[in-house]
Design goal:
Layout lengths: L2 H9 L4 E2 H11 L8 H13 L3 E7 L6 E6 L1 H12 L11 H11 L4 H25 L2 H26 L1 H8 L2
Antiparallel strand pairs: 1-3, 2-3
Helix pairs in contact: 2-3, 5-6, 6-7
């Protein structure tokens, strides 16, 4: 997700400080990868420069001044446009994993071992996501479901590739 679009959407509910935007982002979208403060303020500066947000106030604090940002009409229009556009479906046509399998075959290494190791990593990730889903709220459950469905598709691909290794070996080494 684009951080700038998330910030604009979060600002639609009302003006906010950078710290509060970071906290809201991390709670809703960044549990696995929280934002760095530098990223927050760099993003806000870009939004300000492009006229998508404006300063809504500056408050003195114990440290640096606290700037409050508000979304502009141009920012609302930007969010509207972004929300209306479908995301490009990710097709994963040339994944790193596929490349590893082909290179293993080309170099005489055991490609089946790569697939087995990857299968174990996927299953571990699925167990963790299932635990998180069980303990999470609805938003977390939906995020986990999305990841689990992708991992399930990957597992199907791993099984199919394992079944076709001899044919792939013959094709890439000829």
């Amino acid at each position: 997700m684009q951080i700038s679009k998330a910030f604009l959407g979060l600002l639609e509910s009302g003006p906010s400080h950078g710290y509060d935007l970071k906290r809201a982002y991390d709670e809703r979208f960044g549990q696995d990868r929280p934002l760095a403060y530098g990223q927050v303020y760099a993003t806000l500066q870009r939004l300000l420069k492009h006229g998508l947000v404006e300063l809504d106030g500056i408050e003195p604090g114990g440290g640096p001044e606290r700037k409050r940002y508000a979304i502009t009409d141009a920012g609302v229009a930007d969010v509207d446009l972004w929300l209306a556009q479908p995301e490009r479906p990710e097709q994963y046509l040339q994944t790193t994993l596929y490349g590893k399998v082909v290179l293993a075959l080309l170099t005489g290494r055991p490609a089946a071992d790569i697939l087995d190791t990857q299968r174990a990593a996927h299953l571990d990730a699925m167990r963790e996501l299932t635990r998180r889903k069980r303990d999470g709220d609805l938003a977390d459950q939906l995020v986990c479901d999305h990841a689990l469905f992708h991992l399930e598709a990957d597992l199907r691909w791993l099984e199919l590739t394992a079944a076709r290794l001899d044919g792939l070996r013959a094709q890439v080494t000829s």
